[in-house]
Specification:
Layout: E1 2-6, E2 9-13, E3 20-22, E4 29-32, E5 38-41, E6 48-50, H1 66-76, H2 79-92, H3 98-108, H4 117-124, H5 131-147
């Protein structure tokens, strides 16, 4: 087994297995199988779950630097972009203010807003969100519309 730190992300390469990125300190890992599907492995219970069905478990990835996660996952497979887009959409529509704020930070750092304009439009006028989040969403929404 090879264990290495790359871009602040711990990658584990067991012999004969695909890449995996450790999501949290409890051993939850995101793994791409040979078919290009993203799976979540639980180290504690050794269960496997489809990543698209358990996006909440991947939210801690948004606490990392976007450039590190995007560069590492994008080099693994083109399907990683779809997974990250789904994760960002999930975070933007999540409860509270923490996860939407982190997702907006990712978008502000350069992640494409394509496919998220509807969510940004909803956020910019949502009175339940704090004003700073609404203004950030509005700025990104306006910027994306002028680029189209």
């Amino acid at each position: 087994m090879t264990d290495m730190l790359r871009g602040g992300i711990r990658w584990v390469y067991p012999a004969g297995e695909n890449r995996r990125i450790v999501v949290n300190e409890r051993g939850l890992a995101l793994v791409e199988n040979g078919a290009g599907e993203w799976l979540i492995y639980g180290a504690a219970d050794a269960q496997v779950h489809t990543a698209a069905d358990h996006l909440a478990w991947l939210l801690p990835l948004l606490e990392r630097r976007p450039a590190d996660v995007v560069a590492t996952l994008s080099s693994a497979s083109p399907t990683s972009e779809t997974l990250l887009l789904a994760l960002l959409r999930f975070a933007l529509t999540s409860w509270g203010h923490y996860w939407p704020g982190l997702a907006l930070t990712w978008l502000e750092s350069g992640w494409p807003t394509t496919g998220l304009l509807d969510v940004l439009a909803e956020m910019r006028s949502n009175p339940q969100l704090p004003q700073p989040l609404r203004h950030r969403a509005l700025r990104l929404w306006r910027q994306a519309r002028t680029e189209v």
